[in-house]
Write a structure and sequence with these properties.
The chain has 267 residues and is of the alpha/beta class. The chain is built from twelve helices and ten strands. The strands form two sheets. A six-stranded mixed β-sheet has the order 1-2-3-5-7-10, with helices on both faces. The protein has a four-stranded mixed β-sheet with strand order 4-6-8-9. Strand 1 and strand 2 form a beta hairpin. The longest helix is centred in the middle third of the chain and has 19 residues. The two termini are 25 Å apart.
């Protein structure tokens, strides 16, 4: 992607028609995420956040077999075996989480194939998740003896509810796309050959909308996930007020009266 020099070819990034796409690109390992990939994720998401041409972001996995199958276990001995390594791994993980949280733009998960462990935790960063009918979901931490962090548990339970989260975590088994849909883990399930078109249509529909309003809504939705005492009500109101004072609001009203599609500038 122009202006972004990635340190690895195992992450891909592109921008088209207001849609930024980030793809995990290690298909030979079902897009298991290694250290270099996590650092690149931070760079890509920060770049998308700062780029006014990006109005909505799609995350996906390359190769057709997996979204993300979790962390690259082959690195565990070298990066997650000593207390110091575990602490460093946790610090980078926190930075990845912050990059997702600070994106400030609608995020769509385009899921095909395996979406397991850290891959499912990654998918939970998305505001909307669309999966193929052959996708599989699960968190096998209990089968590996791994500790699964509280934020991951909290995010999962917030989406699917406590009982469903308990079954996913306690059993460590894989769940079908239909099961994921039934528990609210994904918004929609589509045939494999319709995934790209369904996501592209949704992303472009969102990208046509007013950027300041999208920013305001994204912030409000993320604040809503926090405890009431932790919500930044002042910032929420500030973002709402910015929408009402914008040129885009004038354009939206004018386009409505003229029965045409609005052309938003993000100001």
């Amino acid at each position: 992607m122009d202006g972004l020099n990635l340190t690895t070819d195992k992450m891909l990034a592109s921008i088209e028609n207001g849609v930024g796409v980030m793809a995990y690109n290690q298909p030979e390992k079902r897009n298991a995420v290694n250290h270099e990939m996590r650092l690149a994720v931070i760079d890509i998401l920060n770049s998308f956040a700062e780029n006014p041409d990006v109005r909505v972001v799609v995350i996906t996995g390359a190769g057709g077999k997996a979204f993300v199958s979790g962390a690259d276990i082959s690195e565990f001995d070298s990066r997650r075996s000593t207390p110091e390594q575990i602490a460093e791994y946790g610090a980078v993980s926190k930075r990845v989480g912050q990059a997702y949280a600070m994106l400030g733009k609608p995020l769509i998960g385009m899921i095909r194939g395996f979406c397991l462990g850290g891959g499912l935790a990654t998918a939970l960063n998305a505001d909307i998740r669309i999966a193929t009918d052959g996708s599989q979901f699960g968190i096998p931490a209990a089968r590996l003896g791994l500790g699964f962090g509280f934020e991951g548990v909290k995010n999962l339970a917030a989406v699917v509810g406590q009982p469903n989260a308990a079954e996913i975590l306690y059993t460590g088994r894989r769940f079908t796309a239909d099961e994921a849909l039934a528990m609210g883990l994904v918004n929609r399930v589509v045939p494999d050959d319709e995934l790209e078109s369904a996501v592209r249509e949704l992303a472009e529909q969102i990208a046509e909308n007013a950027p300041l309003t999208l920013r305001s809504l994204n912030f409000s939705l993320r604040e809503n996930a926090k405890e009431p005492a932790d919500r930044d009500a002042a910032r929420i109101q500030e973002l709402v007020d910015a929408c009402m004072a914008s040129e885009d609001y004038k354009e939206g009203r004018k386009a409505f009266m003229e029965k045409r599609k609005a052309v938003f500038k993000g100001r």
